[in-house]
Amino acid sequence: GQNIDQPTEMTATEGAIVQINCTYQTSGFNGLFWYQQHAGEAPTFLSYNVLDGLEEKGRFSSFLSRSKGYSYLLLKELQMKDSASYLCAVRDSNYQLIWGAGTKLIIKP
Amino acid sequence: IAGITQAPTSQILAAGRRMTLRCTQDMRHNAMYWYRQDLGLGLRLIHYSNTAGTTGKGEVPDGYSVSRANTDDFPLTLASAVPSQTSVYFCASSDTYTGELFFGEGSRLTVL
User: Fold this and answer.
1) Does A42 contact B105 at a Cβ distance shorter than 8 Å?
2) What is the gyration radius of the CA atoms in chain B, in angstroms?
3) N or C: which end of chain B has fewer CB within 10 A?
4) Cβ separation B103–A42 shorter than 8 A
């Protein structure tokens, strides 16, 4: 079966760095997405990786290793507004998105 | 403002009643989706449509139906609601070239 694993919850301190991991087992691979979802709101797009390596976008970076079935989202200089759930999703060989359950990130002052 | 509009935003419904959740997009995206989101579970695909006039079943289609008469509208219907359909429902559309999903604000449905 297809599976996306991410930690259920993480806690970090304002101003620090946090890495949220995502491992996947899917039928084929056509890209990996990270979305941010604040409580009670819709998910919003953060990043997309289809080739191995690091993609940097401001305070957020996303890394992909296709051979290991692994990605991480790196958040630097954490701010209170970064408290949210972070969803990892993989597009399989049928171009359907398989979603992880999300990682709830709690930022403490 | 361009995007996806869902209605209603919240609804309490008696079991056995019929309910249609509306979804409209103005981005001219070909593909549209309906997901449900439940605590502790990932987004689960109910139905999708790759282009106007076509629909397909997702991971959890039972008890739901959709139609896609035109590019902009993609309503989701619960023919006879049951309590297990209590959830937050998100409509989304995707950009053909990037695959990025754009989500509506969600419809919180409670079936009693």
Assistant:
1) yes
2) 13
3) N
4) yes
Distance from CA of A42 to the nearest CA of B (A): 5
**A85-108 pLDDT tens trace:** 999 999 998 888 999 999 999 999
Intra-chain end-to-end CA distance of chain B, in Å: 35
Q: Indicate the residue of A41, A91, A102 with minimum beta-carbon distance to B99.
A: A91
Structure tokens at A15: 């101003």
Smallest CA–CA distance from A47 into chain B, residue: B100
Instruction: Say if residue B2's pLDDT is above 90.
Output: no
Mean pLDDT for A70-91 is: 97
User: Is 80 exceeded by the pLDDT of residue A42?
Assistant: yes
Helix (H, G, I), strand (E, B) or coil at A54: strand
Q: Does residue A72 surpass a pLDDT of 90?
A: yes
Assess contact for B6 and B105: CB atoms under 8 A: yes
Distance from CA of B92 to the nearest CA of A (A): 10
If one compares B42 and A18, the residue with the highest pLDDT of the two is A18
CB contact under 8 Å between B42 and A99, yes or no, is yes
Q: Provide residues of B within 8 Å CB-CB of chain A.
A: 40-45, 48, 58, 90, 98-106
DSSP string, A1-16: --EEE--SEEEEETTS
pLDDT at A56 over 90: yes
Please return the burial class of B94, using the count of CB atoms within 10 Å of its CB with bins 0-12, 13-18 and 19+: buried
Q: Rounded distance, CA B26 to CA A5, Å?
A: 34
